[in-house]
Write a structure and sequence with these properties.
It contains five helices and three strands. By secondary structure, it is of the alpha+beta class. It has a three-stranded mixed β-sheet. The chain has a single domain, classed as Zincin-like (2-Layer Sandwich), CATH 3.30.2010.
Length: about 110
């Protein structure tokens, strides 16, 4: 009986919650790689510069640069919002991560 009810309550929000943050972040990094976007984490503290994490283009190559000291939830938000702004519909993503990208694309 429980299995019959499950499809009625299933939605992407639930599936994102069921994925570990590490899994979500890794899936986003995989999508970026498939899109030809390099995701790099750097320690900017020694430079003394205030650097904002996000998407950029260097010598014609797309990057998402993330401060390695950001929390995992902030890294997910930075990467998901950066990818959502680009054409990502043709790249396979698990449904939970696809929904996350779609939510950021609407913002």
């Amino acid at each position: 009986m429980l299995l019959q009810a499950a499809p009625e309550i299933w939605d992407a929000t639930f599936s994102v919650v069921c994925m570990k943050p590490e899994q979500i972040y890794q899936e986003l990094k995989n999508i970026a790689e498939k899109m030809g976007i390099a995701v790099e984490e750097h320690n900017f503290r020694p430079t003394g510069l205030h650097v904002k994490s996000g998407a950029c283009v260097v010598h014609g190559k797309q990057f998402v640069i993330i401060d390695k000291h950001k929390s995992l939830s902030k890294k997910i938000k930075i990467l998901a919002s950066s990818l959502a702004k680009l054409p990502h519909e043709e790249v396979f993503a698990v449904p939970a991560v696809r929904e996350l990208l779609n939510r950021y694309a609407e913002e």
